[in-house]
Amino acid sequence: MEDLLDLEVRYDDEGRLHHLAFRLPSGWRVVALMALRRLPVSNRDPSVRLERTRQVLRSAWAAGVDLVVLHAGRPGRGVAQLYGAVAFHPDRGEAVRRAREGLAVLQAGMAAAFPQSRWEPPDLEGVEHIRRAFEDCPLAVPLAVGPGMERPWSDGMCRGMLALGRPFLVQLLLLRGKLRGSEGAFFLEARALVPDLEARRALLGLWAQAFRAPPAPPPFLSPEAEARLRRLVLRFEPLGVGGVLFPIRAFLLRAIGCLRRRKEPPADPELLLLRRQLEAARALQGRAEGAAREAMAALHQACRALNPAAYDEARARGALPSTPAELAAFLVEKVSARLADLELVARQAKADPAEIERLREAVREAQLLRERVETLEGEKALLEARLRAKEEENRRLREEVEALRRLLSEARRLEPAPSSAGGEDLSPEALAALRVLGETGWPLRRPVMECLLAEGALERESVRPFQELEAAGLLEQRKPRVESVGNTPYLLRLTERGREEFRRRFGREPAEPLLDRLLARHKSEEHVWLNLKAAEVLERFGFSVDLFPPVLRVEGRVIAPDLAASRDGKTIYVECERTAKGEEIFRKWENMLLLNGDALYVFVPDARIQSAVVSSVGMWTYRSRRKARLYVCNLAKLSEEAAEPWTLVRSF
Questions:
Q1: Which residues contact 206 (CB under 8 A, 6 or more apart)?
Q2: Series of mean pLDDT values for 10-residue runs along the chain (652 residues)
Q3: What torsion, rounded to 10 degrees, do the Cα atoms 170, 174, 180, 181 define?
Q4: Taking the CB of the first residue and of the last residue of the chain, which one, N or C, has fewer CB atoms within 10 A?
Q5: Degrees (nearest 5) of the Cα angle 153, 154, 157?
């Protein structure tokens, strides 16, 4: 048995299972599954189900599909029934394609054989049900099969196991017969996982009830053999024809019938004649159906060869005809249209040889561009690695610069300030800006500028007062690195010299700079800017925002939210995220859910961080099995016409 190198679990955009891929040294084994959601009462008769199942097996064998059936039961949760296709290929993409195509064949056959039944890909809850069944059942059991088996698995057996209060998992692998004489047949391998010896005895007893003559009991397994069988079950891997691991012969399940004929008393001549006539009619019907299938296969092949674009489009829309006559008409229509297009192109080509040369040149350029794109992709990966290294280096440099700024600020505070403080020749606009900054301590330009415009100190928006104060050594302007588009943000604070100038000119103590308080509370200047921008947006939509919400204690946890916003008597707690990475973020989501009930409110600077937040919340809700409603404000996407600040709302 080969070692498992890697396991891939892939979901689609709607959070449903797309496939499972097991990487082995010799290639990839891929499993695609679908879950039975509803089966009408009219389809539950055992004889009807058996005959229709044979029809599905015939179609699957003809399409070259290997099948798998899973029944996973857990007390209190019911039984999950999954059906699917298994494929193996050295190339991962080809293995996934074959498994998905096999699943499509199986789903079409099941839908045709069992009308009004409903099949869906397993969702996260269904996958978790199967995973828990695997975890709760450590004991592997081989199940003997033979020609006396009427039903491989029945609802009565499921109910019997659930009545015992024991979880279980039964796996059936139906592999196409490839040996001489096994055409049209499947090799059936049955095995199960149970939690303990009592459940093993009960399962074997229920399994034997499916046979007219009970099969030979399975052999006793050594711990090594049992562990090996369990690994095979987890990987959907067969034992092999004749039993590679266990002396249990794999049962040859023929699609034309899997029941032994019972000995019947001699019939009268008329009944015998009628039977022969019925058999002849069935043989003719079988040949007719085979000819129809061959005709459909030939027509499908012709459609793919003659007009692949139209064929793929119709198949994607589910509009392919289902009868030979309709498919032939479809072929004639599409091929006629294709011929008309080709004739038109041919006439144009004869009329304009230069156009042909231009198209050829375009094809050559496209080939060169494709090669260039492949080269650029490699260069992109290399540059991304270098960029990550540079970002780490820049982070260290910013920390060093911040430390130097603090030392410089402390040195300026300690050195005696000149009597004039560098501000004797300030313009009226700069003096007004100094007064507003000293009174409010606000760290952004725009609120200060709006205040100056409202007072009449400025006639129009201008950054010259701030530049003048900075040149005089009274104001410090920091430029954080932000991801959003727009005007370059600056964070403002009066220097010690600027605070002294405010005292000298206005005779009162200046307010503490908000920037100092925010930097003491948050991680970086970039995070401070994101919090200030979030507060500005929330106030625009009628919220009253607290930039310094108190530290809360909930259920023994100490929680420090970034912002608190109130509107219409309701308070929400908001997080501002720039990375959304690491295990620590999961604790943050749990804390915020304790404060907001079932809601998470997050501000992000751009679409990249939004995607990381959505993925992180989805992974956390899946792991913790919690429900949450995520509200995200993407500052780069928020428009002026928006009625609410949330650009994305999603439930998990």
A1: 156, 157, 160, 161
A2: 80 86 90 86 67 80 87 84 92 92 89 83 84 84 64 64 84 72 67 86 78 55 76 79 31 35 46 62 68 77 80 82 78 79 66 70 74 74 77 80 77 54 70 85 82 82 84 84 64 86 86 83 84 90 90 83 91 87 81 88 90 87 87 89 90 87
A3: 80
A4: N
A5: 95
Residue from 108, 170, 112, 181 nearest 145 by CA:
170
Measured distance CA(7)–CA(133) in Å, rounded = 18
Strands (E), 109-241: 118-120, 139-143, 168-176, 185-194
Amino acid identity, position 403:
A
Q: Locate all alpha helices (DSSP H) within 256-307, ordered by sequence.
A: 269-306
Q: How far apart are CA 209 and CA 213, in angstroms?
A: 9
Contact status, residue 146 vs residue 204, Cβ threshold 8 Å: no
Helix (H), strand (E) at residue 478: strand 475-478
List of long-range contacts for 340-344, beta carbons under 8 Å, 24+ apart: none
Question: Token pair of 344, please?
Answer: 């038109």
For residue 42, what is the DSSP state?
Answer: G
CA distances for 290 relative to 10, 257, 295, angstroms = 37, 17, 8
437, 520 Cβ separation under 8 angstroms: no
Partners of 120 in the β-ladder: 35
Beta-bridge partners for 24: 27
Q: Is 56 exposed, middle or buried (0-12, 13-18, 19+ CB in 10 A)?
A: buried
* Residue 633 vs residues 132, 246, 447: alpha-carbon distances, Å: 36, 60, 22
Quickly list DSSP for 250-268.
Answer: PEEEETT--SPPPP-PPPP
